[in-house]
Amino acid sequence: MSERVSSAAASERVSPAMTSGPVSPTVASERVLPAATSERALPAATSERVSPTRTAPLEIPPSRAHLVLGFAAVYILWGSTYLAIRFAVESFPPFLMAGTRHLTAGLLLFTFLRLRGVAAPQARHWRSAAIIGALLLLGGNGLVSWSELRVPSGLAALVVASVPLWMALVQGLQKRRRPRTAVLAGLFVGLAGLALLVMPGSFGGGAHVDPVGAGALLLAALSWVVGSLYARKAVLPASTLLAIAIEMIGGGVLLWIFGLLFGEGADFHASAVTLRAVLSLGYLIVFGSLIGFSAYIWLLKVSTPARVTTYAYVNPIVAVMLGWAFGGEALTLRIGLAAAAIVGAVAIIIRYGGETPAKPAALAVDAPVPAPTAGSERAS
Predict the structure, then answer these.
(1) With helix as H, strand as E and coil as C, how does the chain read?
(2) What is the pLDDT of residues 307-345, one digit of tens each?
């Protein structure tokens, strides 16, 4: 995966004749030369570099096998993070667990990028990353992790899958524009699915979702939406991966601070930690945050956005099935009907004009999202 933080990208941003394509330092320099300066007056080496006969290497399209593996990673790895969270919080306090996950993944990614020569982020980048980390990771992933002490992983995934519903509502209010009829229908169907999950009684052979846990999940979804909207306008590094790394670092630090302030340090007992919890935490760091998101970024480059965003309604189904198969979670008529309603609503909203939020942190923040927009730095 190539990085955009290079002298080429830097030259392109400051060039007075900037265009939309990648620009090498030589070409950028050529654009700002005085009119009287000709190519003949340049040194031989420079003239050779800007020779019109030089062509860029052809890009080889990915094989079908690579595409299948990429989509499998996004579908299965991200869908499996909910069950891994449930196993991890059996031994680790939820906010400290989430903080360890994101801080570790962020530091690993940050170190890797810096060793490759990516420029260090500026103070304003860290400030934006801290705000995004607070909204997406502390408010979003932290509350999801806490809620899984009270709510089965599959049901947590279904509630979090409602993020596109809230995104459509918030954007409609923000733009003071009525959503399209199809989007309104999707909102109605999705809210009906959520109501089915939380309403009292034992309809469909299963008890309703714990209301406190469900409330935390809905608050997590709202925090994710607000953070995603902010991330689209935030000043961040030109490198998408570097932006993700510092967001994970900022969010991880805030999760640790929050967990310690609320007494989670006293709740942690090393002697009670199980191997399953340790392996689950490692799985979240490596497969959920690093590999899963790397596959996502790659797919955005080689496939269409419409195909990539299909994970938004595949992940909840994967989470429900994995929770049933490996976590002993119930799979009832109530859950099946609610899943059909919520996933169907997400599909309608994505298809007919609703938007899903960006996933700037790898996160695998375990919520539906489309292409990250955090990678481009706004001119200030």
Answers:
(1) CCCCCCHHHHHHHHCCCCCCCCCCHHHHHHHCCCCCCCHHHCCHHHHHHCCCCCCCCCCCCCCHHHHHHHHHHHHHHHHHHHHHHHHHCCCCCHHHHHHHHHHHHHHHHHHHHHHCCCCCCCHHHHHHHHHHHHHHHHHHHHHHHHHCCCCCHHHHHHHHCCHHHHHHHHHHHHHCCCCCHHHHHHHHHHHHHHHHHHCCCCHHHCCCCCHHHHHHHHHHHHHHHHHHHHHCCCCCCCCHHHHHHHHHHHHHHHHHHHHHHCCHHHHCCHHHCCHHHHHHHHHHHHHHHHHHHHHHHHHHHHCCHHHHCCHHHHHHHHHHHHHHHHCCCCCCHHHHHHHHHHHHHHHHHHHCCCCCCCCCCCCCCCCCCCCCCCCCCCCC
(2) 777 787 888 999 999 999 999 998 888 889 989 999 998
pLDDT over 70 for what percent of the chain? 74
Identify the pLDDT of residue 307: 78
- The predicted pLDDT at position 328 comes to 93
**CA dist., res. 294 & res. 22, Å (int):** 22
Q: How confident is the model at residue 306 (pLDDT cuts 50, 70, 90)?
A: low
- Higher-confidence residue of 306 and 123: namely 123
Mean pLDDT of 156-182: 83
Q: Which of 147, 80, 149, 74 is nearest to 319 (CA)?
A: 80
Distance of CA 218 to the CA centre of its chain: 17
Contact (CB, 8 A) for 366 and 81: yes
**Residue 9 pLDDT greater than 60, yes or no:** no
Yes or no: say if 348 and 181 are a contact pair by the CB < 8 Å rule.
Answer: no
Nearest to 293 by CA among 70, 5, 86: 70
Structural contact between residues 101 and 252, judged by C-beta atoms closer than 8 angstroms: yes
Q: Do 235 and 123 contact (CB within 8 A), yes or no?
A: no
pTM of the model: 0.75
CA distances from 125 to 106, 181, 246, 297, 306 (A): 15, 39, 8, 21, 30
Categorize the per-residue pLDDT at 201 as very low, low, confident or very high, splitting at 50, 70 and 90: low
